[in-house]
């Protein structure tokens, strides 16, 4: 059965799923794992072959926790799904990475992507030499190293471009993944610290633009919302709002020619050029209008006909 799902080239469809447990931040690690194990089984029962867990879904590290790695690999194999999950990677002597890890049903752990665009003051401290050991502003953060490679995840359904948290706001990074051959985008995020504000919706708007720009479908799994599945035309196919719990599934078309991949950075440069021209034109027009308004009215040629000399003794 697994062999029938081996990746093929060309346009095709795949059923994907995004999980959202909406558990409290202080929920026990084992309770989180049980919740996502159950949601994964539910997604598989709905026909999904690719399942995305959100950022910070569980606190265990797949690279150093053998028991967790074994459990996740057995889960993927038993349910017949490929998983993309979040984990913390480590390199000696003291380098840590925020990663998206692929766990295939037929091979187990099969690659990872290290987040390249880190959040200042949340995942690293700018100018640390000036601040010393100032504590991080976000839990389990503050000392990450950025990844350096635009690695794609080779799932059975196709090549995946992973975006960890706020990487979805960087159009250049996503265009690079599309140009490198990504067929599907996934966004693993944790927006729970926004609470019930407009933050999750604003973050989602950026992600939706990335799908429309590149022509690639995007699966967004958020810790407590908003999770969604978006088509390559930017259309929202399914959604779970803030605080909701459940499984999103949808069938998306992948493997076509992404316009964002063909155009590369040309669109970015063109938009920036047009914006610059529009700003300069607006400023020049406004300056000209102000000069016209400030000029004294044209009173015509001087003439003493009909003019009366004012009475200097008046008043």
Short précis:
This protein has 315 residues and is α/β, with parallel strands linked by helices. The chain is 30% helix and 24% strand.
Helix tally? 7
* Strand order in the largest sheet: 5-4-3-2-1-12
Using DSSP, what is the number of strands? 12
First and last CA, distance: 109 Å
State the low-pLDDT regions, or none: 1-6, 136-141
SSE succession: EHEHEEEHEEHEHEEEEHH
Question: How is the biggest beta sheet arranged?
Answer: 6 strands, mixed
The whole-angstrom Rg is 28 Å
In which range does the helix fraction lie? 25-40%
Class of secondary structure makeup:
alpha/beta
What share of residues are in beta strands?
A: 15-25%
Shape: globular
What is the typical, i.e. mean, pLDDT? 84
Summarize the structure in words.
This protein is of the alpha/beta class and 315 residues long. Helix content is 30%, strand content 24%. The chain contains seven helices and twelve strands. It has helices at 29-45, 66-79, 128-131, 171-179, 199-214, 259-263, 266-294, and strands at residues 12-20, 50-52, 82-91, 95-104, 108-114, 153-154, 159-164, 184-189, 218-222, 227-230, 236-240, 246-254. The strands form two sheets. A six-stranded mixed sheet has the order 5-4-3-2-1-12. Strands 6-7-8-9-10-11 form a six-stranded mixed sheet, with helices on one face. Helix 4 links the parallel strand 7 (159-164) and strand 8 (184-189). Helix 4 (171-179) packs parallel to helix 5. The termini are far apart. Mean pLDDT is 84; it is low at 1-6 and 136-141.
């Amino acid at each position: 059965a697994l062999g029938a799902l081996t990746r093929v080239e060309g346009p095709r469809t795949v059923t994907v799923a995004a999980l959202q447990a909406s558990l409290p931040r202080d929920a026990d690690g084992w309770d989180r794992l049980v919740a996502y194990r159950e949601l994964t089984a539910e997604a598989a029962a709905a026909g999904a072959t690719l399942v995305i867990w959100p950022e910070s879904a569980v606190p265990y590290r797949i690279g150093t926790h053998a028991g967790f790695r074994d459990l996740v690999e057995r889960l993927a194999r038993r349910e017949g799904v490929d998983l993309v999950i979040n984990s913390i990677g480590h390199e000696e002597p003291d380098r840590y990475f925020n990663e998206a890890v692929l766990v295939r049903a037929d091979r187990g752990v099969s690659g990872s992507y290290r987040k390249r665009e880190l959040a200042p003051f949340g995942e690293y401290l700018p100018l640390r030499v000036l601040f010393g050991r100032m504590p991080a502003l976000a839990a389990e953060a503050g000392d990450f190293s950025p990844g350096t490679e635009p690695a794609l995840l080779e799932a059975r359904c196709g090549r995946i471009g992973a975006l960890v948290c706020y990487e979805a706001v960087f159009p250049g990074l996503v265009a690079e993944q599309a140009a490198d051959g990504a067929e599907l985008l996934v966004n693993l995020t944790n927006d729970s610290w926004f609470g019930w504000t407009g933050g999750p919706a604003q973050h989602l708007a950026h992600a939706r633009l990335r799908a429309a720009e590149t022509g690639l479908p995007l699966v967004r799994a958020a810790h407590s919302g908003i999770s969604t599945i978006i088509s390559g035309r930017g259309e929202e196919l399914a959604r779970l709002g803030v605080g909701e719990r459940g499984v999103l599934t949808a069938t998306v078309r992948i493997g076509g020619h992404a316009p964002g991949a063909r155009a590369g950075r040309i669109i970015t440069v063109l938009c920036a050029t047009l914006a610059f021209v529009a700003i300069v034109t607006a400023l020049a027009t406004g300056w000209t209008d102000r000069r016209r308004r400030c000029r004294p009215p044209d009173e015509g040629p001087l003439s003493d006909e009909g003019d009366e000399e004012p009475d200097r003794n008046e008043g």
